[in-house]
């Protein structure tokens, strides 16, 4: 298994390892979120996805500006219709709760309550992870979270991968890095699907009981001036088993300026990226929809003025 199993209590020394030795993707245990709540959350989101299509139809939308929606990821293929991935995703905000709770599913009946409870716990875990990442960079504990700004964009994405008759012909989720700062993923127990690139090869991240997958996103790579990397990952399907995952994203809001943190720039480490507003990053992200995205590369100083994708 490629993912380094990092107990929460020893995450800090792990994060300050020299570059190259740090885990790119970690599974954290001893994370403080009650096991029983994780199980309830996984069961609830699975129940939602298993509702009859007529009931889910009200949430289907291809409009990415909709706050709450079910949609399909797809790839653009030249001179052909878009190719849909073998999955369905449900996207919604996760905080502040009062702003959107009326838009959430009423069915299963416990959905809103369980989600609210779960979101609170993930908020606390995020704070701890950001503080460890800041310390790993030799910065003040609250540095990263301050740089990510007020009113962060907090969205959740449930991913539903039904069994697939010919898994070798398709993917559940195409290769990508997360465009946000930090992602905490809960995945179905006992079903593999998530893969990361290691030494040019795809390797499975087998689910570890009671662990979260922690993914560093593009904004951490930029803020850390490349000291932390956002890892390329994808999801594959399988013939027999249904797999569900729930990703909780934390990212800056559109107005926030992002760029390499000053303390991390010196003669030996010149800035790799130019500063940008998150809105600009998202525009580039949307522009590259349906392709193998190279979004942060567009903000690399050495690429200025060159087309990257
Ligand atoms: C994502 C993601 C992987 C998974 O939602 O960004 O990478 O395990 N999910 O489903
Ligand atoms: Ni992802």
Automatic annotation (TrEMBL):
Domain annotation Fe2OG dioxygenase: ranges: 152-252
Identification of the protein by name: Flavanone 3-dioxygenase 2-like isoform X2
Top-rank taxon, per record: Eukaryota
Natural source organism: Ziziphus jujuba
Keyword annotations of the record: Iron, Metal-binding, Oxidoreductase, Vitamin C
Pfam families: 2OG-FeII_Oxy, DIOX_N
InterPro entries: DIOX_N (IPR026992), IPNS-like_FE2OG_OXY (IPR044861), IPNS-like_sf (IPR027443), Oxoglu/Fe-dep_dioxygenase_dom (IPR005123), Plant_2OG-oxidoreductases (IPR050295)
Annotated family: Belongs to the iron/ascorbate-dependent oxidoreductase family.
Gene from which this protein is expressed: LOC132799173
